[in-house]
UniProtKB/TrEMBL annotation:
<keyword id="KW-0443">Lipid metabolism</keyword>
<comment type="function">
    <text>D-type phospholipase that hydrolyzes N-acyl-phosphatidylethanolamines (NAPEs) to produce bioactive N-acylethanolamines/fatty acid ethanolamides (NAEs/FAEs) and phosphatidic acid. Cleaves the terminal phosphodiester bond of diacyl- and alkenylacyl-NAPEs, primarily playing a role in the generation of long-chain saturated and monounsaturated NAEs in the brain. May control NAPE homeostasis in dopaminergic neuron membranes and regulate neuron survival, partly through RAC1 activation.</text>
</comment>
<feature type="region of interest" description="Disordered">
    <location>
        <begin position="12"/>
        <end position="115"/>
    </location>
</feature>
<feature type="compositionally biased region" description="Polar residues">
    <location>
        <begin position="22"/>
        <end position="31"/>
    </location>
</feature>
<keyword id="KW-0333">Golgi apparatus</keyword>
<keyword id="KW-0442">Lipid degradation</keyword>
<keyword id="KW-0595">Phospholipid degradation</keyword>
<feature type="domain" description="Metallo-beta-lactamase">
    <location>
        <begin position="219"/>
        <end position="419"/>
    </location>
</feature>
<dbReference type="GO" id="GO:0070291">
    <property type="term" value="P:N-acylethanolamine metabolic process"/>
</dbReference>
<keyword id="KW-0472">Membrane</keyword>
<comment type="similarity">
    <text>Belongs to the NAPE-PLD family.</text>
</comment>
<dbReference type="GO" id="GO:0005635">
    <property type="term" value="C:nuclear envelope"/>
</dbReference>
<feature type="compositionally biased region" description="Basic and acidic residues">
    <location>
        <begin position="70"/>
        <end position="80"/>
    </location>
</feature>
<dbReference type="GO" id="GO:0005654">
    <property type="term" value="C:nucleoplasm"/>
</dbReference>
<keyword id="KW-0479">Metal-binding</keyword>
<dbReference type="GO" id="GO:0009395">
    <property type="term" value="P:phospholipid catabolic process"/>
</dbReference>
<dbReference type="InterPro" id="IPR001279">
    <property type="entry name" value="Metallo-B-lactamas"/>
</dbReference>
Length: 468
C-alpha cells in the first residue's frame, strides 16, 4: 500500500447559511504604494524597485532562470540557515473557541487588505516565521517538534499488522448512493467559468483537487485525473470514485498549485495533459526543488518557491500566490526522499483570500499563516487518511485537527478535501465527514463553517458574502 497516497468519504450536504464576512470592495487598479515605508516588516525595497519589477526586472524571476540552467546549484545557494524549533502550541478547546470568536470580529473590512497590491515581499526576512530547513545531506527536513519520520519498521507494522477498516463497497450502485459523482457545471457552460465578480466559486474534483475561481483567475490545486495514484496505471491505489470530468472538459485554467510530490498530489499524466492543452499560458506554482522535474514534463511557465516566497500570474499582479509551510514529506522514487520541499498555499487577492493546506500533520505553522495572511474567505483542508493515529498523525491531520487548522488560519469557511476518492488509510471510508461534524460541534462551530461537497459540486460566494 502506498504510504504517500490518501483519502476518505462523504455525508449529506450541509446548509450554507450563516456567512458573515465583510462587504468586498472593488479593486482600485490605480492604487500605488504610499511614499512612507509600508507596514510589512519584511519589505526593504523602493518604489524604483517596484517599477523595475513591473517592467520584468524581477530578482525572483532571475533566480528562476538560473534554476533552469543549474537546478541543483540553485537549491544549494538558496539554502537557509537552520532555525531553532519552538514548542508546538497545544490549544485547549476553550482557548481555540476564544480565538475563533475573536477572529470573526476582524471580518474582512480592512481597506489595506481590500486594495492590496503584490509587492513581491519575501517573508523569510521576518524573524517570527519558521523557515524551511535542510539536513547535512542537503535534503529538506521538518522544523516542527511535532514531526516524526516514518521508519521502515513502522511502515511494515502498519501495512501488515493493522486492520484495514475502510470497507469500501464493491457495488457501484451503493457507491453512487453514498458518494454521488456530479457533472461539474462548466462541462455544459464553460463560458461561465471565472465569472464570479467580487465573489468566488469552488468546485471539488475529488481528493485534493479543487478548482477555484476568484479575482478574475481560475486555478487548480494538486490535480489528479488518473485512475491510480501510482507511477504506473496497472498497480497502486485505485480510485473508488472516478474524476467528475476530464482535462479536456475543463474551462481555461490560469494556474496550478502543487503542494508536494506524492503520487496522489503530483500525477504525471495529469500534468502532461494539462500542459498539452494549455501550454505556456498555464502557470505552475511548485515547491522548491521541483522545477527540473516540471521542465522534463515539458512545462515552460513554472515558478518554484521556498516557504514565504510569493509570485503572481502574468497580467494579474493584484493576486499574490505565497508558498507557505506544512508538516509533511516528499518521495517519488527509492532514492529521492525530501529532495523537494512540501507546503501549503495562500492566495491573496484584492477581493478574496484562499488557503490550500495540501497534505499535512498538525503543527504551529498554521497559526503563523493565519497571523500573517488571515482571515481567509475560504480554506481547503484535508480530513481523511488519518488512521491509525500512532502512525498517521505526523503526516495527516484527523478531522478534529482539520478544524483546528480552520481556526488557526482564521478561515471564514472551509471545504473538506482529501477524502472519498482513494482508500489510503485504515478508517472506514465514510467516517471522515462524521468525525468532522462531531469536531465542529465540540468546538462550537456550525456545519456550514466547514462544509462538504459532492464530487463535481460547486459552491458560490457571491457579493453578499453568502454561500449559495
Amino acid at each position: 500500500r502506498a504510504l504517500w497516497s490518501c483519502s476518505v468519504q462523504l455525508v449529506p450536504l450541509p446548509s450554507a447559511e450563516g456567512w458573515s464576512g465583510g462587504t468586498p470592495q472593488p479593486f482600485n487598479s490605480s492604487y500605488r504604494r504610499p511614499a512612507e515605508p509600508p507596514p510589512w516588516k519584511g519589505w526593504s525595497g523602493t518604489m524604483e524597485e517596484e517599477e523595475k519589477e513591473e517592467k520584468g526586472d524581477d530578482t525572483l524571476q532571475g533566480r528562476q532562470q538560473q534554476s533552469r540552467s543549474s537546478p541543483e546549484k540553485s537549491m544549494d545557494k538558496n539554502t537557509d540557515e537552520e532555525q531553532p524549533s519552538t514548542a508546538c502550541n497545544q490549544y485547549p478547546k476553550e482557548a481555540v473557541k476564544k480565538r475563533q470568536n475573536s477572529g470573526r470580529g476582524s471580518g474582512g473590512n480592512d481597506s489595506s487588505r481590500t486594495f492590496r497590491k503584490s509587492f513581491r515581499l519575501d517573508y523569510r526576512l521576518e524573524e517570527d516565521v519558521t523557515k524551511s530547513k535542510r539536513g547535512k545531506d542537503g535534503r529538506f527536513v521538518n522544523p516542527w517538534p511535532t514531526w516524526k519520520s516514518p521508519t521502515l519498521p513502522n511502515i511494515l507494522k502498519w501495512s501488515f499488522m493493522e486492520k484495514n477498516n475502510s470497507n469500501v463497497p464493491r457495488s457501484k450502485q451503493e457507491l453512487d448512493k453514498e458518494l454521488p459523482v456530479l457533472q461539474p457545471y462548466f462541462v455544459q457552460t464553460p463560458e461561465d467559468a471565472g465569472k464570479t465578480g467580487a465573489g468566488m466559486r469552488v468546485t471539488w474534483l475529488g481528493h485534493a483537487t479543487v478548482m477555484v475561481e476568484m479575482d478574475e483567475l481560475v486555478f487548480l490545486t494538486d490535480p489528479i485525473f488518473s485512475q491510480r495514484a501510482s507511477p504506473i496505471q496497472l498497480l497502486g491505489p485505485k480510485r473508488f470514485r472516478g474524476p467528475p470530468c476530464t482535462v479536456a472538459q475543463l474551462p481555461k485554467i490560469d494556474a496550478v498549485l502543487i503542494s508536494h510530490t506524492h503520487y496522489d498530489h503530483l500525477d504525471y499524466n495529469s500534468v502532461a495533459s494539462l500542459n498539452e492543452r494549455f501550454g505556456s499560458e498555464l502557470r505552475w506554482f511548485v515547491p522548491l526543488g521541483l522545477l527540473q522535474w516540471m521542465q522534463r514534463c515539458g512545462c515552460e511557465n513554472v515558478i518554484e518557491l521556498d516557504w514565504w516566497e510569493e509570485n503572481c500570474v502574468p497580467g494579474h499582479d493584484a493576486v499574490t500566490f505565497v508558498f507557505t509551510p506544512s508538516q509533511h514529506w516528499c518521495k517519488r522514487t527509492v532514492t529521492d526522499d525530501n529532495k523537494v520541499l512540501w507546503g501549503s498555499w495562500s492566495v491573496l487577492g484584492p477581493w478574496n483570500r484562499f488557503f490550500f493546506a495540501g497534505d499535512t500533520g498538525y503543527c504551529f505553522a498554521f497559526e503563523q499563516i493565519g497571523k500573517r495572511f488571515g482571515p481567509f474567505d475560504l480554506a481547503a483542508i484535508p480530513i481523511g487518511a488519518y488512521e491509525p493515529r500512532w502512525f498517521m498523525k505526523y503526516q495527516h491531520v484527523d478531522p478534529e485537527e482539520a478544524v483546528r487548522i480552520h481556526i488557526d488560519v482564521q478561515a471564514k469557511k472551509s471545504v473538506a478535501i482529501h477524502w472519498g476518492t482513494f482508500a489510503l488509510a485504515n478508517e472506514y471510508y465514510l467516517d471522515p465527514p462524521v468525525k468532522l461534524n462531531e469536531a465542529l460541534e465540540r468546538y462550537g462551530l456550525k456545519k456550514d463553517d466547514f462544509f462538504l461537497l459532492r464530487h463535481g459540486e460547486s459552491r458560490n460566494l457571491n457579493t453578499n458574502d453568502r454561500f449559495e
